[in-house]
Structure formats: structure tokens, C-alpha cells
Amino acid sequence: MSSVRPVTAGHNSPLSVRLDTESGVLFVKGLPDTSPGRVATQRREFELGRCLEGLGPRARWQVRAGGWYLVAFDHIEGRCADYRPGSADLPAVADLLRAVNRYPVPVGVELRRAEQRLAAYGTTEQLRHVAGHALLHTDLNPGNVLVTGDGTARLVDWGWATLGAPWLDAAAWAIWLVACGHSPSAAHTWAERVPAYRAAAPEARRAYADMAAAMWEDVARGSRAPWVAHIRKAAAEWACAAPPTGLAGDSRPSVP
């Protein structure tokens, strides 16, 4: 190992460093080995990292020692995606979400289900709409999408990967687009670049919008982070613009 540099991006890892080694550059994240839930989330991310060729960084090794659990991934040289209106990154993110939809669910990796994760925020009928067998990332904040020098987008931080309806990642992305300055109609138009979202029933999209708004309202009650309040507002705006027939006055906008 020739050098170690801290990585300041991200919110979830007490330890994040870049390792420049003789065999290549690695990103290493770690947390105290005292929280079973967080350790399980990081282990899930590592296990998926051994399978998701092309979608995210490849996992290299894991170590549990000295009260810490460390995992290492190939370092992706890139910047966080720009979700603002007019950004040249938006088509690449839509391409990435289409690629996730085409990827088979890795065998042997324990994943929660969307209807489990949203159970506190929806009725039985609403939860039925989000159930499915597609691999989902679910945390589409722009810090988890890295754009490389050739304009390709890659997803990092797969710890919240989930099984569910294949259009859910696009719907979650749309909420982040609203948070970054898009109107709900414009965000819906970008989400429709993902065929699975375009094919989803309007009542299913509405059910998710209501549950997502309730979820972010709940998260905001327990957090003073400005970004949480911002995404709570965006989720509420998205839900208000999504009646059962689709986005108000714009249920099938043209795809840009």
C-alpha cells in the first residue's frame, strides 16, 4: 500500500478511505462491529458487489478485526451525478436504471422486499402494487450515482438493495429529481425513459408516491439534516401531483 486518503462523501460510514495499492486503487468503508443491523447492510453490499458487473464497483475483500468490519471495492473514478434540470447526466442515469432492470437477481444474496420495507406506510392494497421480483437499488440520491469520464453512470452503496416491482427505482429517482429542481411533470417524463416505469399502472405509481411521502415524513421527524427536510418536501410535492390517472394533466408526456 502506497497511500491512504480519506473520502468525505457519503453519510453512512464512520470510515471511508481511498487506498492506492500496487495492484490498483480501492475504496474501503468500515463500521464498528457492534451493530448487527448495520453490519448486515454492509455485508449485503459486499455480497452484491461480487455479482454486479458493470452496474457498480466490484467487491474485493472483507475483514472483521479489532472491533471493525471493513469491506473493499474497486475505486470508481467519477463525480456525483448532477440531477438538475438541463444536466447532461440525466440520460446516463436513465440508461443505468434500464440496465439494472435487465440484471438478474444474484443467487444467494439475502434481500428484503419492497412491501416489507414500506409496510408501515401503506395499506395491504398499496403494498401489493410494489411487490415483485426485480432487483432494486432504492437509494437513488445523486451521491450514490457516479459519472465517469466517458459519461457512464454507475451505482454505488448497494446496502439497501431490495426485491420489488421493477419500476420502483425510476419512481424513487423522480422524487430526487423534484428535490433537485424539476417539476413533477418533468420528473415523470424522465422516469418514463425507463420502460418498466412507463408500463406501470397509474394506480401503482400513485400508491408508491403516497407511501414514499409518508416514509420521508417519518424520516424527517427523526432527523434535523437539511437534506432530509428537502427530500421530504419533494416527496410530498410528488405525491400531490400524482392522482390515480397519472400526473395531473400530463399522464403520458412525451419522452425527452
In short:
By secondary structure, this protein is α+β, with helices and mostly antiparallel strands. The chain is built from 9 helices and 11 strands.
Explain this structure.
With 256 residues, the protein is of the alpha+beta class. 38% of the residues lie in helices and 20% in strands. Helix 5 (168-179) crosses helix 9. The radius of gyration is 18 Å and the shape is globular. Mean pLDDT is 89; it is low at 248-256.
Topology at a glance:
Elements: E1 3-6, E2 15-21, E3 24-32, H1 36-49, E4 59-65, E5 68-74, E6 78-80, H2 90-102, E7 112-113, H3 114-117, H4 124-130, E8 134-136, E9 145-148, E10 153-155, E11 162-164, H5 168-179, H6 184-191, H7 195-199, H8 202-221, H9 226-240
Parallel strand pairs: 7-11
Antiparallel strand pairs: 1-2, 2-3, 3-5, 4-5, 6-9, 8-11, 9-10
Helix pairs in contact: 4-8, 5-6, 5-9, 8-9
